[in-house]
Amino acid sequence: MTVLYLIVARGGSKRVPGKNLQKIEGLSLLGYKARACPTALLSTEDAAIQKEALALDIDYFYRPAHLATDQATTEDVVRHAMRYVTACEERYDAIMLLEPSSPFVSQKTYVSAIQMMIDKDADFIFGHVLYLFKWDWLNTRQDLYDNLTDKTYYFDMPTSEAVDIDTPHDLEHARWLAAKGYVDLSWAK
Asked: How far, in Å, CA of 20 to CA of 31, rounded?
């Protein structure tokens, strides 16, 4: 099964300015996604994020400004990425949605979710901060959770990896977890 590892990272976070470039243990949130999924493709409108992507050797493409607002949905961004990939004459069986705001998800966890999709012939696998869905999943849905089927499965991911950074407090907590060694980040070194 071929999987598009799609990183979605905009520059305009209001609660945590420059969130996707914030660092934990010397590595940006975007960098954690690059280490977990070295063949990822990045969707962004932000020049600073593009510059960081180049430094991390991540391929990226430009996301239009209207898809980088608070009103734009993740699903709209994914659909735009799908059109971009299709225009590049590439084809994938599934999409792993990667949000830098959940930096601690390891490559091992992503691989386990993909294996679950294969083993169960699933259409959609989701965990606290993990989203894996078949390429055509969004064709008949407004959002990821519309019209769930019996081929939808919950992925029980490690609690230590389920960190989601939405506020300055979340970021400081994630930094504390990493500094104290409560999260295994050996895979990101």
From this structure: 9
Helix (H) or strand (E) holding 132: strand 131-134
Distance CA 2, CA 132 (A): 12
- Predicted confidence at residue 85, as pLDDT, reads 97
Residue 97 main-chain phi, psi, to 5 deg: -80, 125
CB atoms within 10 A of CB 153: 18
Domain limits at 80? Answer: 3-188
CATH number of the CATH domain containing 82: 3.90.550.10
Q: What is the pLDDT of residues 64-94, one digit of tens each?
A: 999 999 889 999 999 999 999 999 999 999 9
Crossing angle between the packed helical segments 47-56 and 29-36, to the nearest 10 degrees:
40
- Indicate the helix (H) or strand (E) that contains 33: helix 29-36
CB under 8 Å to 171, separation ≥6 — which residues?
A: 16, 19, 22, 24, 165
> pTM of the entire structure?
0.95
Cβ neighbours for 38, distance < 8 A, ≥ 6 positions apart: 57
| Residue 54 half-sphere exposure toward CB, CA atoms < 13 A | 5
Q: How many domains does the chain have?
A: 1
Can you tell me which residue has the tokens 């969707």? Answer: 43
> Distance (Å, rounded) from C-alpha 79 to C-alpha 64?
12
Using alpha carbons only, give the angle 100, 122, 10 rounded to the nearest 5 degrees: 20
